[in-house]
Amino acid sequence: MLFVFRGMRMFQALLAVIALVTGVGTVFSLKAVSDSSAWPLLVAPVLLGLAFVWAFGATLRAPTSYVAISDTGTRIRFAGFVDTVVANGNIVGARLMRWPLLGGLGVRTAFRGDVALASAWGEAAELTFREPVRVWLVPRVIPVKARRLTLTVRNPEKMVERFGLGSGGGASLPTRGARKMRSRGPRTR
Q1: Dihedral through CA 111, CA 105, CA 171, CA 1, nearest 10?
Q2: What predicted TM-score, i.e. pTM, was given to this entire model?
Q3: pLDDT tens, 85-113?
């Protein structure tokens, strides 16, 4: 099964704006350094240039973000932050949850084992792992170990059903299913 992230075009546009701002900032700071001949100030344009290269690369990789589930493993790929294969035996829980508007977009963490790969707000699937999965907060610089990974994919209900593991340590959202019918007398029996 292949699950794509919701709202990826909006997330890609956000990354493009970040790339544009850091690129313009790099040019202006290089101009300021060259005009003043203060070479120790060259640190700022170098850092802005690295941020530009990262944001531009993430903008190009964002549309290829997905979660692919096979019989033996699950591949999670998200805009240059994570590209890993997790054994399905390592997934011990799956549940539905709601990703809040104030939770933000991108890689979100509180450094306590909870990591979210968020490209949109709303319903999401949360996977709980036996062994933590490495996610890059800053690619190739700051890794984070995730025991629980929240994914804002399309059809998170199907992902939770695919693993069929129950709640995985928390209450899940009510599913959209059969309603309880009211009794109206002998016609309904």
Answers
A1: -110
A2: 0.77
A3: 999 999 999 999 999 989 999 889 988 88
